[in-house]
Amino acid sequence: MNERLKKDLDEMASILDKVKNQGISYLDHLQSHPTSNTNNINPQTSLPIDGWGAKNTLEYFNDTFEKIMVSSSGPKYWGFVTGGTTPASIAGDWLTAIYDQNAFKASGQGDVSSQIEMETILLLLDLFNLSKNLSGGLVSGATMSNLTCLATARQWIGKQQGKDYAKEGMNGSIHVLAALPHSSVLKAMALLGLGSVNITTIKTNHGNRESINLKDFEKKIRQLSGDPFILISSAGTVNTADFDDFEGISQLKKKFNFWWHIDAAFGGFASCSKSHRHLVNGWEYADSFTIDCHKWLNVPYENAIFLIKESYKILQVETFQNSNAPYLENELDTVDYLNLLPENSRRLKALPVWFSLLAYGKSGIQGMVDNSIEHAQSFGNWIENCPYFELLAPVRLNTVCFTLNDYSEELVTTFLSLLNETGKVFMSPTFYLEKKGIRAAFVNWRTTAEDVSEVIELMQNLIKKIS
Ligand SMILES: Cc1ncc(COP(=O)(O)O)c(C=O)c1O
């Protein structure tokens, strides 16, 4: 055994102690840690012949990277849709690395990882109040989840047309309809050979909405003259957290032959909130779902689920089967995850989710979701009533989309960059209603009313300075 490795093995306990203490100190100061950093490092380009050992490497990491780390899992990181990490999910994540299971098989001797994953999916179905006729798995994020669902949807279209696209390749046209799909959907379409520009765009509803206009949807369906198609709908658009009318779509599904996918990356968690669960009424009739766990469930990156109707499992197997590998004892009639999703070898992503679900239960997660909604609403109210800002859309859930009242694109850019430069809060830019806007997305379980007040004060001072 290499000398360094041997020494590290002997010192395993003290290495992990150091990491634990450093981790606790970081998490204890997350509140005051900067939310942005513009420092760059000079990357080293040559690998040392002899390694440094884990402790020296940790020291080097601390000197170089740790000090410029931003608190993206902290309470005032409101950029993109960035979740934090609950204590139980960190515990689960540590154990995931420690046990280092390869969660690709359900069958075989002694592998419990798939059982943990299946139990986790069942618990999530219960959390979202979705039917047990869905089965799912964990992937690295909503992008991969959208890809997995759309790959199965592509196979479904093939069946309607008497083709097997997974086997034969794409030699026909597939219709995809959507109003405002997330960019990750376009990426999935590009990867699947559907073509990212091949979307028939459905009009959105009038009155500052990002949701599908059902009349136009029906008109577009009729233009397809009975051809099967894929509908991509949204439970939470990324700019304004708008939801499609799922009850209306489910009525149309009774009349027309289509695969219905819902991108519910963050908005799926509306189902956990008593006051907001009406937003997903009717979603249970969809064929597939994308829900991110590293967003509102607040588990470490990379973590999302896909859910597909159990009755379509054969399509999943046709699409993802890892055939011709006898060494994997690969039996297609079992639910080995390697036959149901893109990856073969995979870490046990279920464990941090499983830990957080059981540690906090339905009421804990509902509390997390309601807390974010409350802060988004109070921040949105302030924006609406502040003469310096303009709310670009009503706060429907957890996202506040706004701009400056005295509008110019340059001023919005300057304001956002000065705000983020303070390192005390982080928001991200967008473009909405033909205006450059700013998005604050509330998904972190640690955010408090005091955090919101601090940011408001900061914004007031800054806007007065630059106006
Ligand atoms: C609605 C929606 N779909 C998909 C994604 C992509 O998610 P991920 O970055 O986890 O792949 C996001 C990310 O913000 C999102 O908001």
Question: What would a concise description of this structure say?
Answer:
The chain is of the alpha/beta class and 467 residues long. The protein folds into two domains: 90-356, Aspartate Aminotransferase, domain 2, CATH 3.40.640; 362-466, Aspartate Aminotransferase, domain 1 (Alpha-Beta Complex), CATH 3.90.1150.10.
Name the features.
seven-stranded mixed sheet, binds pyridoxal-5'-phosphate, alpha/beta, four-stranded antiparallel sheet
Describe this structure in words.
- The protein has two domains: 90-356, 3-Layer(aba) Sandwich (Aspartate Aminotransferase, domain 2); 362-466, Alpha-Beta Complex (Aspartate Aminotransferase, domain 1), CATH 3.90.1150.10.
- 41% of the residues lie in helices and 12% in strands.
- It contains 14 helices and eleven strands.
- The protein has helices spanning 3-10, 12-28, 54-64, 87-99, 113-127, 142-160, 165-168, 183-191, 214-223, 246-255, 313-320, 350-385, 409-421, 449-466, and strands at 134-139, 175-178, 199-201, 229-234, 258-263, 288-292, 304-309, 389-391, 399-404, 428-432, 435-441.
- It has a seven-stranded mixed beta sheet with strand order 1-7-6-5-4-2-3, with helices on both faces. A four-stranded antiparallel beta sheet has the order 8-9-11-10.
- The radius of gyration is 24 Å and the shape is globular.
- The mean pLDDT is 93.
- It binds pyridoxal-5'-phosphate (PLP).
- Pyridoxal-5'-phosphate (PLP) is lined by residues 80-81, 141-143, 182, 184, 236, 238, 263, 265-266, 292, 304.
